Amino acid sequence: MSDDKTLAETLAQRGISRRSFLKFCASIASLMAMPPAMAVEMAEKLAAARRQSVVYLSFQECTGCLESLTRSHSPKLEDLIFDAISLDYQETLVACAGHFAEHILKEAIEKNDGKFILMVDGSIPLKDGGIYSTIAGRTNLDILEWVAPHAAAVIAVGSCAAFGGIPKANPNPTGAVAVSDIIKDKPIINVPGCPPIPVVITGVIAHYLTMGTIPDLDELGRPKVFFGDSIHDRCYRRPFYDQGKFAKSFDDEGARNGWCLFELGCKGPTTHNACATTKWNGGVSFPIESGHGCLGCSEPDFWDAGSFYTALSAPTKDVANWAAIGVAAGAAIGVAAGIANRSTKTETKRTRKPLTVDDLKGKPKS
Amino acid sequence: MNIFDILQWARGTGLQIAVVIFSVGVLIRLLEMWMLNRKPDLAEPRASGTLGGWRTVFTRSAPSMVLMKKAGLLLVSGYIFHLGFFIVLFFFAPHIRLFHNMFGVSWPALPNGIIEIITILSIGALFALLAHRIMNPVQRFLSTFQDYFVWLASLLPLLTGYLLLHTSDFSYSQMLTAHLLSVELLLVIFPFTKLMHAFTTFFSRWYTGAMAARKGVTV
Amino acid sequence: MSTSLQQGLAAMIDKIDAPIASFFNSCVHCGMCADACLFYTETGDPKYTPIHKLEPLRKVWYREFTLEGRLLKMFGLAKAPTDAELVEWETLIYDSCTLCGRCSMVCPVGNDIVYMVRKVREGMVASGHAPAGLKEATVRSIEIGSPMGVTADTLRAQIKHAAKDTGLDIPLDKAGVDYLLLMSSAEIMQFPEFMGAAAQIFHQAGVSWTLSSTAYEATNSGMQIGSSELAAVLVKRIVDAAEKLKVKTVISPECGHAYTALRWEGPNLVGRPFTFKVKHILEVLDELRAEGKLRTEGLETERMTFHDPCQLVRRGGVHDQPRNLLRMVAPDYVEMEDAGNMNWCCGGGGGVSANERAEPLRIKVFSRKKKQLDKIGVSAMVTACSNCRNMLEEGLEHNHMDIKVLSLTELIAEHLAK
Ligand code: SF4
Ligand code: SF4
Ligand code: SF4
Description:
The complex is a heterotrimer. Chain A is of the alpha/beta class. Chain A folds into two domains: 173 residues, Rossmann fold; 138 residues, Cytochrome-c3 Hydrogenase, Chain A, domain 2. Chain A has 16 helices and nine strands. Chain B has one domain: Transmembrane di-heme cytochromes, Chain C (Fumarate Reductase Cytochrome B subunit). Chain C has three domains: 128 residues, Fumarate Reductase Iron-sulfur Protein, Chain B, domain 2; 157 residues, Up-down Bundle (Glutathione S-transferase Yfyf (Class Pi), Chain A, domain 2); 111 residues, no CATH class. Chain C has 22 helices and seven strands. The radius of gyration of chain C is 22 Å and the shape is globular. Chain C starts with a helix and ends with a helix. Chains in contact: A-B, A-C, B-C. At the B-C interface, helix 2, helix 4, helix 7 and helix 10 of B face helix 2, helix 3, helix 8 and helix 16 of C. The site of one iron/sulfur cluster has 13 residues of chain C, from helix 3.
C-alpha cells in the first residue's frame, strides 16, 4: 500500500546502501542510453520521488510475464524497483482473495484517480461477449474499460497485452485483442516479449518516475531505447552472417563453431528487442548464445510468422504447390489460347484471297 | 496493418499470388507461341537444323566482336547485369534457403561479401544501361514506357537486397518487406513484358540457329 | 479481288508463326541491330533500326496472338496498324531493307529480324503498298517471263552470239543432261559474257548441260515484293522445266536472291521437295575444282578483293566455295574488314535495286562499302551476283572510285587451262 515515504527513506529502512542504489541507477541509465551524469540525477530524483501507485491487471495470460518480473533465483538490482513503487493491486500477489481483493482494487483506483500507472498482462478476449476470461463475473473487457480511464498511463506488459500474443494466434478462438485495440485515449507503452525482459519493465517505470513522461516509442508503441535495434544488429554471431557462414543443423560443425543461425530459422533480423545486450537470467545468456535461433517473440503475431525453424528468406506458406497449380492452370489456359490462335490463322487463311498478278496493276483500295 | 503484417503477407500470400501469376502467365505466353507452329522446311538441308539450333543457343551468349567496337559499354554492362543478377539470385545463402524450402534442393553459397560486390556491380551496370538507353539515339527512339518500367522493376530487388545487408538506416523488416514486394512485382509483370526474353531468347536463338544451320551457315 | 488494308492484315496473320512470336517476345529494345544495318550506320537515323521496321507486324501479333492483346482488342485498346501507318512503313520495309540479314547475326536474343521483314512484305504487297518499280518488275516476270522483259527470243539471240564467240555448242532444251543452267536477266542483257564463260567451263570439265526456253530466268521478283503466291508461280516454271528435261541439278546463276528463292524457299513455295538438286554456279565450279575437272592457268597480278553477296553467303551458306575458286587465280587476294558472313550489303539487294524511289538512299549508304574498300586499296573487286555487280559499279562510279567489278565465273573462264 502506498505511503508517504520517499524511496530514499524506504531503502534506508531496508538497509540498502546508497552505493548499490547508484549502481542500479547507472545500469538503468546506460541501458536507456543516457549520459552517465544522468545516473546521479536519476538517483536523486528517484530517491526523492513519492512511491508511485501501480495497478497490475492480469487478463488472458499465462503468468509468465509476472514470473519473469518477480521470480529471480537471487535478488537482483531490478527487484529494487519494487521498492520504488507501491503495487496496490496484483491479483496473483495480493494477499487477500474474493471480495476483499475486489475492494482493494476499487480503493486503489479511487485513492490515486488519474495518477496510478496501469500495468496489464494478457490479451482481452472479445468473442461471445468476452466470456472466455472473467474475474468475479466481470469480463476482462469490462474491467479494462472500467480501470483504464482512471489511470495516468498504461504499460502493456508482454506480447499478449501488447499485440494479442499467443491467444490471438490462428485461429484466435477467443477473439483476443491487444490493450491498444480497446484503449484509445491513454498513453500506452508496449513492452512486448514472451516474456519481456524484466529490466526493460523496470527501466520503463524508472523512466516514468524520474522524467514524469513516457519514453520515446516506435511505431509499434515500444520504447525505442530498448526496441530500437534488432537482435541481428547486436548479435555476437553477426560476423558469421556477414561472411555467409551458417550452421545447417543444430549439431553440425557450424553449430559447434558458433556460426550464424539464420538458416535454422533465426528471426533475429526482424526482431526488435534487447536480449542481445541485456541477456537473460542476470546477464547469463540469451537464446542465440545458447544455440537456438531467435523466435521473434517481441514482434506482433510471431506465432503465425511461419515455423521457428524456417529461414526468414523462405516463404511462410506453401509456394511450390501453388507454383505447380499455376503451371497446370497456365498449361490449360495456354493450350486454349493456342487453339484460339490456330483458329484465327485457319480462318484467315480460308477467307483471305491469294494475291494475283492483276492485284499489282490496279490502285490499292483502302 | 503494421510493417510486420505486410512482411508476413509478402512472405506468404503475396508470394503465392505472385508465383501463380508468374507461372500461369509464362505458360500461356509459351504455349500460345509454340502452338503457332512453323511449317516444315522442305528444302534439302546442308546440316542438321536441330544441332545448329542448340549451337546458337550457346554461341549467341558470346559477345559479338563486331559490335564490341560500336557498343562496348552496352555489351559490358549487359553482361555484368545479367551475370550479376543470376549469381546473386542463385548463390546468396538466404536465396538458396528459399529454393531449398520450395523445391528441396540446395547448393553451396557464395560469401556475403562477394555477393555484395556483385550486387553493387549489377546496380552500377543497370545505371549504365539506363544512361545508354537515354543517351543513345537508337535506344531512346525504341524505348517505350515498358522499357523504363522494367528497368525500375529489375533495379528494385537488387537495391532493396543490397540495403538489406546494410540495415543501419532502415529496419530489416522494412527492407525485407520492400525486397519481397519488389521481387513479387518482378514476378507479376514478368509474363506481360519483355522480361519474357529470359525464356524466349532460347527459342529465338534456336529457331534462328536452326534455320541458318540448315543452310550451312553458323550464326 | 483487289488489294486492301484488310487483305494486308490477313496476309500478316497468315504468316505469323512460332518463330515470329518468339522474336517479338524476346526483343529487349537494345538497339544493337541498328549498328548492324547499313541504313542506320550510314544515315544515323534511328527510324532505320531493323526491329522498328517490323512495328506493323508486331502490332498484329500482339493483337491477334497474345492473350492480353486479345483482351485489350475486345476493349478497343489494342489497335491494328492503319492504312496510313502501312504507307509510312512502306519505305522502311522496301526502300531501307535489302534483306541482307546482317541484323539477324548480331541480335543478342537471337532474333532473325530479316525473316520477319520478308513476312511483313507479304502484308504490304497484299495491302497494295509495294513500290511501283517492284510491282512492275513482278508483273513483267509473270507475264513476259523476266523482270527486265527478256523473252525466249532474246535468249536465243544471245545463245547465237555466245556460240559464235566461243565456238562452242550451247544446248537449249536438251533433255537428260546433268545440269540445267538458269540465267538472270542482267546476265542475259548486260553481262552476256557470262553465258560463254559457263559454256567454256562446262566444256573443259566435260559435263552435259542445257539452257531452257521456258525456264531461263532465275530471279524472282515475287519473292522480293513479298508475295509467296507470285513467287511460287515463278519457281513452278523452273520446277516444270527441270522435271520435263529430267536434269539432275539446276544451276542458279550469279545472283544472290535467285539462289535463296530457288534453293531455300523454292520447295516451300511449291509445297513439295524437289526431285532435282539446286546448286549455285560457284558450288558447281568448286565441285569441279575438287574433282580436278576445273583447271586454270596464269595468275592475276592486280590487288583484288571479294564482295560477299548477302543471299549467297550469309543467307545462303556458300561461303568457302568463292574463296577456293578465287585463290586458284588470285592467291594473294585480300579480304575486306567484316568479310564473309558479316560483310556489308552492296545496298541494292532485296528488290531495292528495282525500286527507283530508293535510289538516293541506296547511293548514300554505299558509303559503307566505300569505307571498306578505302581501307584495303584494291583495284578490282570480284563478286558472284549480277545485281551486286550493277549496284557496286553504280556506287563506285558515283564516288569516282577506279575499281573494276568482276564476275568470279567469268574470271575463272578467262583463266581456263587451254
Ligand atoms: S544468429 Fe540470428 S540474430 Fe544472430 S546473426 Fe544470425 S540471423 Fe542474425
Ligand atoms: S536485313 Fe539488312 S538492310 Fe534489312 S534491316 Fe537487317 S541489316 Fe538492315
Ligand atoms: S538487336 Fe534484337 S533485341 Fe536488340 S533491338 Fe534489335 S531485335 Fe530487339
